[in-house]
Specification:
The chain is mostly helical and 267 residues long. The chain contains 13 helices and two strands; from the N terminus they run αααααααααββαααα.
């Protein structure tokens, strides 16, 4: 009896929060294949992104716009872009293909959801820093529901059962929210597209990420590498399709990243 009480109290509180915020901002109900697609996309897009497979690739679709980020380090950035590109095709992609043969898609989606659930403190803290109280409480409700009904977060029960989506906030967005510009564009080896502001934001987010306090640097590197292999394994072909539609992939990725991050800050 005591065990059920411990679980039911936070679950009840979380459901009340969900109902309250769903009343404030109702979300559309989808079913079937559309529901699975939205759930899959909802599990991605944390700020701890790495190399290939980020959401700005699909949203940019290789289209070059008129606005662009300052790129005074372009010669160096292009060298790092080509390094990351070869790393993807020569190492990451083959590893992901082998991983796909061993681990079924449903398990890989569950692993992605688990890592996203662990990242909740970063999103919640940045919601608070930006004064987005609704987003903060949604993150709290999502964490309670996903950790309990979602089996430690291996299922995004908050989204699938209650249509409560992630807030997707990070410290780079928080800095942008208060008016700090991107600074120069950066391509970081092993990491991919970034900017001076977002690189600093990622460093700040690391102080809000719980695993960093009980895992050493090598364990964290292994965790991060495994997470990204798992994420990219679910999006194989996306980077290739992006490159095929781009006149200059380097410029297209830069502009897609810039436009995507602008949208993230403004939403």
């Amino acid at each position: 009896m005591k065990k059920y009480t411990i679980v039911s109290i936070p679950m009840g509180m979380a459901i009340l929060l969900v109902l309250f915020f769903s009343y404030l901002a109702p979300l559309p109900v989808v079913a079937g294949e559309d529901q699975a697609t939205l759930s899959s996309s909802n599990a991605s897009d944390d700020s701890e992104d790495w190399l290939m497979g980020e959401d700005y690739l699909s949203e940019g679709a290789g289209q070059q716009g008129t606005e662009d980020i300052s790129d005074p380090l372009e010669p160096v950035n292009r060298v790092f872009y080509h390094f990351n590109d070869k790393l993807y095709f020569w190492f990451i992609k083959p590893v992901c293909k082998g991983y796909n043969k061993i681990v079924p898609a449903v398990a890989r989606r569950g692993i992605r959801a688990f890592f996203s659930n662990v990242y909740t403190p970063v999103r919640a803290a940045n919601c608070l820093l930006q004064g987005k109280i609704t987003g903060f409480w949604k993150e709290i409700a999502r964490f309670i529901i996903n950790t309990t009904a979602g089996g430690l977060g291996f299922r995004d029960a908050a989204f699938e059962d209650y249509n409560v989506s992630k807030s997707n906030e990070d410290f780079g967005q928080t800095l942008g929210f208060y008016g700090l510009g991107f600074g120069p564009y950066l391509v970081i080896p092993f990491i991919g597209p970034s900017s001076l502001r977002d690189a600093a934001g990622s460093a700040a987010d690391s102080f809000m990420y719980p695993p960093n306090y009980f895992m050493n640097i090598w364990e964290n590197m292994g965790r991060s590498a495994y997470r990204k292999v798992n994420d990219v394994s679910l999006r194989l072909g996306e980077y290739e399709n992006f490159k095929e539609t781009a006149i200059d992939p380097y410029v297209s990725i830069r502009q897609a990243y810039y436009q995507y991050r602008l949208k993230q800050v403004k939403k």
